[in-house]
């Protein structure tokens, strides 16, 4: 017995648990990616597709609400900008992507 054994206990070989197989070690990350796809990525892609379709159907006279909460009527359409009339003779230009929702006709009159 040497002096170091008195200060530090000697390491004993412990039985190691059986390592999971290669297939099992890959199964967990693949399963996580699949769960993330179905719970996060796929619904987000679906919402983006619906939003793009809504913007393509946008026309003059549609009542819209922007991401900032401004409601108005579309008076002019461009490639990337939309002119929205928010009050009599008060018009603002917003990016098409800033249009959050198209409201049913007559919503602004009743509000």
From TrEMBL:
InterPro entries: Preprotein_translocase_YajC. It is found in: Cell membrane. The chain crosses the membrane at residues 23-41. Its main location: membrane. It holds the Pfam family YajC. It is a single-pass membrane protein. The keyword Membrane applies. Keywords: Cell membrane, Membrane, Protein transport, Translocation, Transmembrane, Transmembrane helix, Transport. The keyword Iron-sulfur does not apply. PANTHER family: SEC TRANSLOCON ACCESSORY COMPLEX SUBUNIT YAJC. Belongs to the YajC family. This is Sec translocon accessory complex subunit YajC. The gene is yajC.
């Amino acid at each position: 017995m040497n002096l170091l054994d008195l200060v530090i206990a000697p390491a004993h070989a412990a039985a190691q648990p059986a390592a999971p197989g290669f297939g099992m070690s890959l199964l967990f990350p693949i399963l996580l990616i699949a769960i993330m796809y179905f719970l996060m990525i796929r619904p987000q892609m679906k919402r983006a597709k619906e939003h793009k379709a809504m913007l393509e159907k946008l026309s003059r006279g549609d009542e819209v609400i922007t991401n900032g909460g401004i409601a108005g009527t579309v008076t002019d359409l461009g490639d990337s900008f939309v002119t929205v009339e928010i009050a009599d003779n008060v018009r603002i230009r917003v990016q098409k992507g800033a249009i959050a929702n198209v409201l049913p006709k007559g919503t602004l009159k009743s509000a």
